[in-house]
Design goal:
heterodimer; A: mainly alpha; 4 helices; globular; B: mainly alpha; two-stranded parallel ribbon; two-stranded parallel sheet; 11 helices
Chain lengths: 124, 205
Protein backbone atom coordinates (compact mmCIF):
# COMPACT_ATOMS: atom_id res chain seq x y z
CA UNK A 1 0.00 0.00 0.00
CA UNK A 2 1.49 3.38 -0.88
CA UNK A 3 2.37 5.41 2.13
CA UNK A 4 0.15 8.41 2.68
CA UNK A 5 2.00 11.69 2.59
CA UNK A 6 2.41 13.08 6.07
CA UNK A 7 0.90 16.47 6.65
CA UNK A 8 2.41 18.71 9.26
CA UNK A 9 -0.23 18.61 11.95
CA UNK A 10 -0.50 20.94 14.91
CA UNK A 11 1.86 18.72 16.87
CA UNK A 12 4.54 18.76 14.21
CA UNK A 13 7.71 20.63 14.78
CA UNK A 14 7.21 24.19 13.58
CA UNK A 15 10.72 24.76 12.36
CA UNK A 16 12.21 21.46 11.44
CA UNK A 17 11.42 17.81 11.40
CA UNK A 18 12.21 16.79 14.92
CA UNK A 19 9.72 14.20 16.13
CA UNK A 20 7.99 14.81 19.45
CA UNK A 21 9.52 11.59 20.77
CA UNK A 22 12.58 9.85 19.38
CA UNK A 23 11.58 6.35 20.47
CA UNK A 24 8.34 4.73 21.60
CA UNK A 25 9.77 4.08 25.08
CA UNK A 26 10.24 7.82 25.55
CA UNK A 27 6.59 8.47 24.72
CA UNK A 28 5.45 5.71 27.05
CA UNK A 29 7.65 6.91 29.89
CA UNK A 30 6.33 10.44 29.48
CA UNK A 31 2.73 9.22 29.49
CA UNK A 32 3.23 6.99 32.55
CA UNK A 33 4.54 9.96 34.50
CA UNK A 34 1.78 12.34 33.38
CA UNK A 35 -0.73 9.62 34.22
CA UNK A 36 0.66 9.27 37.76
CA UNK A 37 0.40 13.03 38.27
CA UNK A 38 -3.20 12.97 37.06
CA UNK A 39 -4.00 10.19 39.47
CA UNK A 40 -2.61 12.33 42.27
CA UNK A 41 0.23 9.97 43.09
CA UNK A 42 2.72 12.70 42.45
CA UNK A 43 2.53 16.48 42.20
CA UNK A 44 4.07 18.20 39.22
CA UNK A 45 6.44 20.38 41.32
CA UNK A 46 7.65 17.26 43.17
CA UNK A 47 8.20 15.59 39.83
CA UNK A 48 10.14 18.48 38.29
CA UNK A 49 12.34 18.62 41.38
CA UNK A 50 13.21 14.93 40.95
CA UNK A 51 13.73 15.38 37.21
CA UNK A 52 15.95 18.42 37.75
CA UNK A 53 18.16 16.45 40.14
CA UNK A 54 18.46 13.59 37.65
CA UNK A 55 19.23 16.01 34.80
CA UNK A 56 21.95 17.67 36.86
CA UNK A 57 23.54 14.28 37.46
CA UNK A 58 23.40 13.49 33.75
CA UNK A 59 24.81 16.83 32.60
CA UNK A 60 28.00 16.54 30.60
CA UNK A 61 29.68 18.66 27.98
CA UNK A 62 30.26 22.14 29.21
CA UNK A 63 29.93 24.58 26.39
CA UNK A 64 28.78 22.21 23.67
CA UNK A 65 27.38 23.92 20.58
CA UNK A 66 23.67 24.43 20.04
CA UNK A 67 21.43 23.01 18.87
CA UNK A 68 22.96 19.59 19.50
CA UNK A 69 22.06 16.21 18.09
CA UNK A 70 18.33 15.84 18.84
CA UNK A 71 18.24 12.05 19.08
CA UNK A 72 21.20 11.92 21.42
CA UNK A 73 19.89 14.77 23.57
CA UNK A 74 16.47 13.12 23.78
CA UNK A 75 18.01 9.78 24.75
CA UNK A 76 20.06 11.35 27.51
CA UNK A 77 17.09 13.37 28.78
CA UNK A 78 14.65 10.48 28.90
CA UNK A 79 17.23 8.18 30.48
CA UNK A 80 17.54 10.75 33.26
CA UNK A 81 13.73 10.87 33.35
CA UNK A 82 13.53 7.09 33.78
CA UNK A 83 16.02 7.21 36.63
CA UNK A 84 14.07 10.02 38.30
CA UNK A 85 10.79 8.12 38.00
CA UNK A 86 12.27 4.92 39.43
CA UNK A 87 13.63 6.96 42.33
CA UNK A 88 10.32 8.68 43.00
CA UNK A 89 8.45 5.35 42.93
CA UNK A 90 10.94 3.81 45.34
CA UNK A 91 10.82 6.84 47.68
CA UNK A 92 7.05 6.56 47.86
CA UNK A 93 7.18 2.83 48.47
CA UNK A 94 5.24 2.11 45.27
CA UNK A 95 7.81 -0.26 43.82
CA UNK A 96 11.48 -1.04 44.23
CA UNK A 97 14.39 -0.94 41.81
CA UNK A 98 14.60 -4.73 42.18
CA UNK A 99 10.97 -5.22 41.18
CA UNK A 100 11.47 -3.12 38.06
CA UNK A 101 14.74 -4.91 37.22
CA UNK A 102 13.10 -8.31 37.60
CA UNK A 103 10.18 -7.34 35.40
CA UNK A 104 12.52 -5.88 32.76
CA UNK A 105 14.47 -9.16 32.73
CA UNK A 106 11.19 -11.06 32.34
CA UNK A 107 10.31 -8.89 29.32
CA UNK A 108 13.75 -9.59 27.82
CA UNK A 109 13.28 -13.33 28.26
CA UNK A 110 9.78 -13.20 26.82
CA UNK A 111 11.12 -11.31 23.81
CA UNK A 112 13.94 -13.83 23.31
CA UNK A 113 11.44 -16.70 23.02
CA UNK A 114 9.08 -14.78 20.71
CA UNK A 115 9.61 -14.90 16.94
CA UNK A 116 9.84 -11.63 15.07
CA UNK A 117 6.54 -10.12 14.18
CA UNK A 118 4.62 -11.77 16.99
CA UNK A 119 3.36 -9.85 20.00
CA UNK A 120 5.54 -10.43 23.02
CA UNK A 121 3.60 -11.99 25.87
CA UNK A 122 4.96 -11.70 29.36
CA UNK A 123 2.86 -14.69 30.38
CA UNK A 124 1.79 -13.49 33.78
CA UNK B 1 9.96 -27.42 17.17
CA UNK B 2 10.06 -26.57 13.50
CA UNK B 3 12.97 -27.45 11.28
CA UNK B 4 14.88 -24.36 12.22
CA UNK B 5 14.98 -22.21 15.30
CA UNK B 6 13.05 -19.01 15.02
CA UNK B 7 15.22 -16.15 15.91
CA UNK B 8 13.88 -14.46 19.02
CA UNK B 9 13.09 -10.79 19.29
CA UNK B 10 15.32 -8.41 21.12
CA UNK B 11 14.31 -5.49 23.29
CA UNK B 12 16.74 -2.71 23.93
CA UNK B 13 17.37 -1.97 27.60
CA UNK B 14 15.33 1.20 27.85
CA UNK B 15 12.37 -0.33 26.05
CA UNK B 16 12.39 -3.30 28.43
CA UNK B 17 12.82 -1.01 31.41
CA UNK B 18 9.89 1.24 30.53
CA UNK B 19 7.72 -1.79 29.71
CA UNK B 20 8.61 -3.09 33.15
CA UNK B 21 7.65 0.16 34.88
CA UNK B 22 4.34 0.17 33.02
CA UNK B 23 3.67 -3.51 33.82
CA UNK B 24 4.43 -3.10 37.50
CA UNK B 25 2.29 0.02 37.82
CA UNK B 26 -0.56 -1.50 35.80
CA UNK B 27 -0.55 -4.60 38.01
CA UNK B 28 -0.81 -2.33 41.03
CA UNK B 29 -3.73 -0.54 39.43
CA UNK B 30 -1.89 2.78 39.24
CA UNK B 31 -1.72 3.11 35.48
CA UNK B 32 -4.29 2.52 32.78
CA UNK B 33 -2.61 1.59 29.47
CA UNK B 34 -5.52 3.03 27.49
CA UNK B 35 -5.11 6.38 29.21
CA UNK B 36 -1.41 6.29 28.33
CA UNK B 37 -2.25 5.84 24.64
CA UNK B 38 -4.41 8.93 24.81
CA UNK B 39 -1.70 11.03 26.45
CA UNK B 40 0.85 10.04 23.80
CA UNK B 41 -1.63 10.72 21.01
CA UNK B 42 -2.37 14.17 22.45
CA UNK B 43 1.24 15.30 22.47
CA UNK B 44 2.22 13.63 19.21
CA UNK B 45 -0.70 14.96 17.21
CA UNK B 46 -2.96 17.44 18.93
CA UNK B 47 -1.01 19.96 20.96
CA UNK B 48 1.86 21.82 19.40
CA UNK B 49 3.36 25.16 18.48
CA UNK B 50 0.61 26.02 15.99
CA UNK B 51 -1.54 26.79 19.05
CA UNK B 52 0.94 29.39 20.19
CA UNK B 53 1.25 30.75 16.66
CA UNK B 54 -2.49 31.42 16.63
CA UNK B 55 -2.19 33.28 19.92
CA UNK B 56 0.56 35.45 18.48
CA UNK B 57 -1.40 36.02 15.25
CA UNK B 58 -4.33 37.29 17.28
CA UNK B 59 -2.13 39.46 19.49
CA UNK B 60 -0.66 41.10 16.39
CA UNK B 61 -4.02 41.85 14.85
CA UNK B 62 -6.12 42.69 17.93
CA UNK B 63 -4.82 45.37 20.29
CA UNK B 64 -7.35 44.54 23.01
CA UNK B 65 -6.36 40.88 22.94
CA UNK B 66 -2.68 41.82 23.15
CA UNK B 67 -3.43 43.96 26.21
CA UNK B 68 -5.32 41.10 27.82
CA UNK B 69 -2.43 38.76 27.04
CA UNK B 70 -0.09 41.19 28.78
CA UNK B 71 -2.31 41.42 31.86
CA UNK B 72 -3.49 37.82 32.21
CA UNK B 73 -1.93 35.49 29.68
CA UNK B 74 -3.46 32.37 31.23
CA UNK B 75 -7.02 33.65 30.75
CA UNK B 76 -6.39 35.20 27.32
CA UNK B 77 -4.87 31.97 26.02
CA UNK B 78 -7.58 29.83 27.60
CA UNK B 79 -10.18 31.95 25.77
CA UNK B 80 -8.83 30.46 22.54
CA UNK B 81 -9.37 26.97 23.88
CA UNK B 82 -5.73 26.32 24.74
CA UNK B 83 -5.78 25.20 28.33
CA UNK B 84 -4.79 22.06 30.13
CA UNK B 85 -1.58 20.53 31.36
CA UNK B 86 1.29 22.93 31.89
CA UNK B 87 -0.79 25.82 30.60
CA UNK B 88 -1.53 27.21 34.04
CA UNK B 89 0.28 30.33 35.23
CA UNK B 90 1.32 31.64 31.83
CA UNK B 91 3.10 34.93 31.29
CA UNK B 92 3.44 36.50 27.85
CA UNK B 93 6.61 38.51 27.30
CA UNK B 94 6.59 40.94 24.38
CA UNK B 95 9.54 41.68 22.15
CA UNK B 96 9.89 45.28 21.00
CA UNK B 97 12.53 47.38 19.31
CA UNK B 98 15.48 47.32 21.68
CA UNK B 99 14.13 44.47 23.78
CA UNK B 100 14.33 40.73 23.16
CA UNK B 101 12.98 37.97 25.40
CA UNK B 102 14.22 34.43 25.62
CA UNK B 103 12.96 31.50 27.69
CA UNK B 104 14.84 28.66 29.36
CA UNK B 105 14.31 26.19 32.16
CA UNK B 106 17.70 26.07 33.80
CA UNK B 107 16.85 23.11 36.03
CA UNK B 108 14.98 20.73 33.78
CA UNK B 109 12.44 21.28 31.02
CA UNK B 110 9.45 23.37 32.20
CA UNK B 111 7.67 24.62 29.11
CA UNK B 112 4.18 25.86 28.14
CA UNK B 113 2.79 22.63 26.69
CA UNK B 114 -0.68 24.03 25.99
CA UNK B 115 0.65 26.52 23.45
CA UNK B 116 3.93 24.98 22.28
CA UNK B 117 3.56 21.22 22.78
CA UNK B 118 6.55 19.39 24.22
CA UNK B 119 9.94 21.10 24.07
CA UNK B 120 12.52 20.32 21.40
CA UNK B 121 15.53 18.30 22.50
CA UNK B 122 17.91 21.24 22.57
CA UNK B 123 15.66 23.06 25.06
CA UNK B 124 16.15 20.16 27.47
CA UNK B 125 19.86 19.79 26.82
CA UNK B 126 22.56 20.71 29.31
CA UNK B 127 24.28 23.27 27.04
CA UNK B 128 21.13 25.31 26.48
CA UNK B 129 20.12 25.20 30.13
CA UNK B 130 23.59 26.22 31.24
CA UNK B 131 24.35 28.84 28.61
CA UNK B 132 21.07 30.65 27.92
CA UNK B 133 21.41 32.76 31.05
CA UNK B 134 25.20 33.11 31.00
CA UNK B 135 25.68 34.07 27.38
CA UNK B 136 22.36 34.57 25.60
CA UNK B 137 23.93 36.49 22.74
CA UNK B 138 26.31 33.65 21.89
CA UNK B 139 23.45 31.15 22.12
CA UNK B 140 21.31 33.28 19.79
CA UNK B 141 24.19 33.46 17.32
CA UNK B 142 24.28 29.67 17.21
CA UNK B 143 20.61 29.71 16.33
CA UNK B 144 21.41 32.17 13.56
CA UNK B 145 19.91 35.17 15.29
CA UNK B 146 21.78 38.44 15.40
CA UNK B 147 20.04 41.33 17.14
CA UNK B 148 20.70 45.02 16.54
CA UNK B 149 23.46 46.32 18.77
CA UNK B 150 22.21 47.69 22.06
CA UNK B 151 19.22 45.34 22.18
CA UNK B 152 18.54 44.31 25.74
CA UNK B 153 18.05 40.56 26.16
CA UNK B 154 15.88 39.36 29.01
CA UNK B 155 16.10 35.66 29.85
CA UNK B 156 13.17 34.13 31.70
CA UNK B 157 13.72 31.00 33.77
CA UNK B 158 10.65 28.76 33.74
CA UNK B 159 9.50 26.74 36.71
CA UNK B 160 6.78 24.22 37.41
CA UNK B 161 4.64 27.18 38.53
CA UNK B 162 5.50 29.80 35.92
CA UNK B 163 5.83 29.43 32.17
CA UNK B 164 6.50 31.97 29.46
CA UNK B 165 5.41 32.61 25.88
CA UNK B 166 7.46 35.07 23.86
CA UNK B 167 5.41 37.32 21.58
CA UNK B 168 7.86 38.06 18.78
CA UNK B 169 7.91 41.38 16.96
CA UNK B 170 5.50 41.57 14.07
CA UNK B 171 7.60 41.41 10.91
CA UNK B 172 7.82 44.35 8.53
CA UNK B 173 5.67 44.06 5.44
CA UNK B 174 2.91 42.14 7.19
CA UNK B 175 0.35 44.95 7.15
CA UNK B 176 -3.07 43.89 6.04
CA UNK B 177 -2.49 40.15 6.50
CA UNK B 178 -5.26 38.14 8.12
CA UNK B 179 -4.86 36.68 11.58
CA UNK B 180 -4.36 33.24 10.05
CA UNK B 181 -1.76 34.48 7.57
CA UNK B 182 0.05 36.21 10.41
CA UNK B 183 0.07 33.00 12.45
CA UNK B 184 1.83 31.27 9.56
CA UNK B 185 4.78 33.64 10.03
CA UNK B 186 5.25 32.55 13.64
CA UNK B 187 7.81 29.82 14.24
CA UNK B 188 8.14 27.75 17.38
CA UNK B 189 11.60 29.14 18.05
CA UNK B 190 10.31 32.71 17.80
CA UNK B 191 7.99 31.93 20.72
CA UNK B 192 10.90 30.59 22.80
CA UNK B 193 13.02 33.55 21.80
CA UNK B 194 15.72 31.62 19.94
CA UNK B 195 14.28 32.76 16.62
CA UNK B 196 12.39 35.62 15.00
CA UNK B 197 9.11 35.56 13.15
CA UNK B 198 9.43 35.05 9.41
CA UNK B 199 9.02 37.97 7.04
CA UNK B 200 6.13 37.59 4.56
CA UNK B 201 8.73 37.57 1.76
CA UNK B 202 10.23 34.37 3.23
CA UNK B 203 6.87 32.73 2.75
CA UNK B 204 4.56 31.20 5.30
CA UNK B 205 4.65 27.65 6.45
Amino acid sequence: MPERPRLPGPGADADGAEPVFHAPWQARLFAITVGLVERGLLTWPDWTAALAAACADADPEEGAALPGDPARDAERYYRAWAGALAGVLADRGVTSAAEIDDCAAAWQQAAARTPHGRPIDLGR
Amino acid sequence: MAGHDHEGSHLDDMTARVMAIETVLTEKGLVDPGALDLIVETYENRVGPRNGARVVGRAWSDRDFADWLGRDATAAIASMGFAGRQGEHMTAVFNAPGRHNMVVCTLCSCYPWSVLGLPPSWYKSAPYRARAVMEPRAVLAEFGVTLPEGTEIRVWDSTAEQRYLVIPERPAGSDGLSEAALADLVTRDSMIGTGLARAPSEGGR
